[in-house]
Amino acid sequence: MADLNSTPAGERLHIAFFGRRNVGKSSLVNAFTGQDLAIVSDVPGTTTDPVYKAMELLPLGPVMIIDTPGIDDVGKLGRLRVERTRQVLTKTDLAVVVTDATRPLDETESQLLALIREQGTPCILVKNKADLLSDLPSEAPGTIFTSAATGFHIRELKELAAHTAAQRSPSRPLVADLLQPGDLVVLVVPIDKAAPKGRLILPQQQTIRAILDAGGMALVCREVELDQTLSRLAAPPKLVITDSQVFGLADRVVPREILLTSFSILMARYKGDLALTVAGVAALDRLRNGDRVLICEGCTHHRQCGDIGTEKLPQWIRAYTGKELEFSFTSGRDFPADLGDYALALHCGGCMLGSQEMACRQRLCADQGVPVTNYGIAIAFLHGILGRALEPFPQIRAML
Fold it and tell me: pLDDT, tens digit, for every residue of 143-198?
């Protein structure tokens, strides 16, 4: 049997449980997952930080379950916990709001439901502790009575969650729509000190799998063997996909009649709004001395000498613009709520983030009037080859 944890977190639908303290939220999460995932206590505020658990929710598939602190937590630490809970909402594909069935909704719960609806996130309202009621009222659509103590309606809640989460729009294709069965794709993968030992990085793995799923053939080589690889082929490949760091070399080596793009640009379309990030790259031409640029990564890998986010991109941008700029960096789940001081935001492909979280980050930028672009798009732009890198996407390329 395959390891259920092998599916990357960014490819799992995120189902988050929200609610006030002591409504039985953590007990319900434990019943839902069939494990003692969350610490349960009668003391309000036992859950202090979001707790994550990967599981298989049939027939939906792999999901990420998140138990959050109470939305009514108090004190200085309580406010920090509530903020953590709000941050979880930005990555949530399905919100499960847990309430106490023995009392009506209070103002805090009503505000939470309004916030979820405003964000457009599918939601299930769970009225827990139903075992304390003498009679169960009729259930409104999207509402279910449960009892974590007795197991009442836990199976029904899981079925409702799977059905509701499945209604979300399917993910955009990574590469399959660019290929026909039998097409050959050459993948250019540098093996340098930044490459993880003994394995490929996630976007490379995902792209290979997507090519195979489409009935295509994947041929992987380093950038130093790219010329030799292409010369040995009896027929040219349909597409070459390169690591963005060697975009310039790939552009020189790959004949013009062969389509060329990057893993990062593919991820920009797969996880977010490609048109938005292509439009945002033009801000590089408008940067002035003293402007602040935000560079964001969805993962928290150890930074090494020559890191693309913290070293190479700032160097390339300074060389291109000739301006004195200030760079700020975030990684993992950290993303600033206030972007007003930034002239531009650059984001990685987001392979470790869900599409919902990436969409929220991009929407936050758009709402605050901050241009946002993607690593691969920016690198292609800085090397003067963005038009070529977007040839596989003619509608987007027409924007240039």
Answer: 999 999 999 999 999 999 999 988 765 567 999 999 999 999 999 999 876 666 77
345 three-class SS: strand
Q: Judge contact between 253 and 226, C-beta under 8 A.
A: yes
Sign of the C-alpha dihedral computed for residues 178, 181, 184 and 189 taken in this order: positive
Domain 176-267 architecture: 3-Layer(aba) Sandwich (3.40)
Judge if pTM exceeds 0.85.
Answer: no
For residue 152, the 8-state DSSP code is B
Residues 225-251 as b/e (b if ≥16 CB within 10 A, e otherwise) read ebeebbeeeeeebbbbbbbbbbbbbbb
Any bridge partners for residue 135, and if so which? Answer: none
Parts of the chain belonging to CATH 3.40.50.300: 4-166
Q: How many CB atoms lie within 10 A of CB 256?
A: 9
Q: What angle do CA 60, 23, 85 make, to 5 degrees?
A: 65
In the chain, at which residue ranges do the beta strands (DSSP E only) sit? 13-19, 51-57, 61-67, 94-100, 123-128, 143-145, 184-188, 217-221, 239-242, 259-262, 292-297, 326-331, 344-347, 372-374
Handedness of CA 7, 360, 398, 390 (dihedral sign): negative
Cβ atoms 157, 29 nearer than 8 A: no
Query: Both ends of the chain: CA-CA distance in Å?
Result: 48
Cα 325 to Cα 122, 155, 235, 286, 381, distances in angstroms: 41, 55, 46, 12, 18
Q: CB within 8 A of 159, min separation 6: which ones?
A: none
pLDDT at 4 over 50: no
- CATH 3.40.50.300 for domain 4-166: yes
Class of 275-382 in CATH? alpha beta
Reference 68, options 34, 120, 23; nearest CA is 23
- For CATH 3.40.50.11420, list the domain ranges present in the chain: 176-267
Structure tokens that stand for 387 in this block: 């038009």
Number of C-beta neighbours around residue 276 at 10 A: 18
3-state secondary structure of 93: coil
Token pair belonging to 92: 């949530």
